[in-house]
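I hope you will forgive my troubling you with a question about protein structure. The matter concerns a single protein, recorded as an amino acid sequence and a row of backbone structure tokens. Please examine both parts with care and let me know of anything in them that strikes you as inconsistent. Thank you for your consideration; the sequence and its tokens are set out here:
***
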Amino acid sequence: MPLSRSLSVTSLNGLPQWEDEDLPVEDLLLFEVAWEVTNKGFYVYFGKWLIEGSPSVVLFDIGSAAWNLDRWKGEFWEACNVGIPYNDREANDALIFGSLTSWFLKELADQFQDKPNIIAHFHEWQAGVGLILTRYRTLPVATIFTTHATLLGRYLCAASVDFYNKLDKFDIDREAGERQIYHRYCMERASVHCAHVFTTVSQITGIEAEHMLKRKADVITPNGLNIKKFSAMHEFQNLHAMYKARIQEFIRGHFYGHLDFNLEKTLFFFIAGRYEYSNKGADIFLEALSRLNFLLRVHRSDITVVVFFIMPTSTNNFNVETLKGQAVRKQLWDIAHSVKEKFGKKLYEALLKGEIPDLNKIVDRDDLTVMKRAIFSTQRQSLPPVTTHNMIDDSTDPILNTIRRIGLFNSRTDRVKVIVHPEFLSSTSPLLPLDYEEFVRGCHLGVFPSYYEPWGYTPAECTVMGIPSVTTNLSGFGCFMQEHVADPTAYGIYI
């Protein structure tokens, strides 16, 4: 987590040390509590988070407290009779973090003379230990627990179970036990039932939580976006045109030698998110693309659709052929500019003399040789690559295997071209130097046919950036739009 004015709670001759003493009273209080915890032998850091509003942040170094793990496991067992296996690193880390959090809240409450007004908001099962111990120790703290997706729900949907039609039929304990997450499930369920207020992020996740965790959400708190960041309405078309041109440049390099389609009649679609093949709807999207490709070919359409899959997974490095494509494109660009500069100079000198130059002679032999060599370099025997990176195990990759089955190999006859980009986008990339927001603005459509999506930031981000999106009524965002917006298609959202 990036911090500014990072106030490291360390010891200097027995006194706390900080970089900036000009702290508000509430920050000074948090700093003093952090110092008290540090005095007990744990590393705690206090600082400011580098986002709008610069909220105060307290960071716990759980490694410095790992020596207490066995003792805290015993205390946690006494609190809720949940045992944690020695080999579950994530659950052990969650226990250390939760124990430190509860201790911190106790020290904070002790700073107040009268009854304090402290609210602690815990998110997901990994933070739940702190809530359970806070209630067990009867600390004067009001607690809220928010689940963004139930733990067992994630596992069941990843296993391609008919989740929503069988919600009321699952043997929860057996399902959690078979997946060796029973202790994690118990931590999550105990957190939900210990909380004063239980919330979740969408109506459909509320239904899921009621069946999986056996408590109905007190409040539905849909996720939001800071739309001020995207509020330049008059700039939407300009930004779209600018970033579309950047994507077109990438396409020119990626498809060099096969660029026989009109980029001005090319649409850019994309799907993005965690690599969950079925949960995120990549399976149904690929089947739809296969049908779309067939229909466009049958009707001899001059429209081309280029589809990006932005779903990070394990890779070795960039695909050499993809890098070569961008190098060829840049080489052609440099040659064109060099010849243009010489051509312009000769034309300028001829016009100064009052002559119309012989256009057959204005480009000399050397220039023609350079251009012919450049054209020769664009010849390509292989098809443009489907993926921009070398996948570590591409023989078992579900997206690539489906592409092989439906035959979308980026051939000349395909009207649907596919590009799998298995890493997050970055403006520093040598391939596609765009941040995610810039990339989205340059596209024409986001497609998110999720089967399991507690909320769904991607269609929401498309909406506020003026890009149409397709989502499902099994995503929290899709449900929200259907329930609260009279005509969602008027906002560019198709469900």
Notes: Confidence is low (pLDDT under 50) at residues 1-21. The radius of gyration is 29 Å.
